[in-house]
Amino acid sequence: MWEFTSKILPFNDKAHDLQLALSICKGERPEIIENIPQCYIDLMKKCWDEDPLKRPSSKEVLNIIENWIFRPENKKIEDINEELKSNIMEFINAPIKHNNLIVKSHPKACYTSHLLDFTSEELNEILELEDSQGFLKFLEQKYQSSQNEFDYHSIKPKIKWVSYSQIKNLKKIAEGGFGIVYKALINGDIVAIKKVLYSQEPNKYFLNEFKSLYQCYDSKFEYIIKCHGITKDPITKEFMFIMKYANGGDLHNYLQKNFAEITWKKKLHILWRISDGYL
């Protein structure tokens, strides 16, 4: 939501290190951009709540944005309640302006997945400067979670096995801490292929991702790019997911190219689709 108001990625002017991670845990959030509808700011801040249980669900976000876009039962604006009417008018009257935030990213800003070592000496040194016992207790209470086991027997042949020999013109287009994304051809069709690093022996991270991709295969997830196949690199023995290729690139690139022309109505439609995809 914040990137739709700023055009830039959050915390782009900071090093993405342990210090930033700790600052976010203690409440640091991106700067609110001027001339943004207050109802949008309020929803965004709720999504930033430090307590995950107090954040709105995807369904709640979807319903709120849906009302902003479509109005309840397509009523005329004069026939809806005053609060919603006020919210809708905020979007209608909100200007589309460029911001004065720093566009150039910090050299240590990183937006691909990577691990931070939360047992390092550096972290210990940081915590020694603060109330370490209280802060560690806070982290333990807020962020403990358990993983549900994956039921292998529930798998149906929605995601098919594809022979690696069918892949042609494999070209790397992105890389993160846990995977590499390629553009390739299979039977003449352009596809995206994600190699899951260190997945020679499927671990919980690989299985969780596979479970998510499998669940998102249902037709109701029309706004999520689906995985249609799986294969294995014959050299590294790592698993690879075969997915639909997005010609327009990712959301960040889209905003970079079109920010000045994107109306609030268009922004809300995109957010509505994203929220729908998370359900």
Automatic annotation (TrEMBL):
Any single GO BP term: immune response
The UniProt record lists the keyword Transferase: yes
Residue ranges constituting the Protein kinase domain according to the UniProt record: 167-279
Gene3D superfamilies found in the cross-reference section: Transferase(Phosphotransferase) domain 1 (1.10.510.10)
Molecular function in Gene Ontology: ATP binding; MAP kinase kinase kinase activity
Pfam families assigned: PK_Tyr_Ser-Thr
Top-level taxon of origin: Eukaryota
Cross-referenced InterPro entries: Kinase-like_dom_sf, Prot_kinase_dom, Ser-Thr/Tyr_kinase_cat_dom
Alphabetical keyword list: ATP-binding, Kinase, Nucleotide-binding, Serine/threonine-protein kinase, Transferase
Name of protein: Protein kinase domain-containing protein
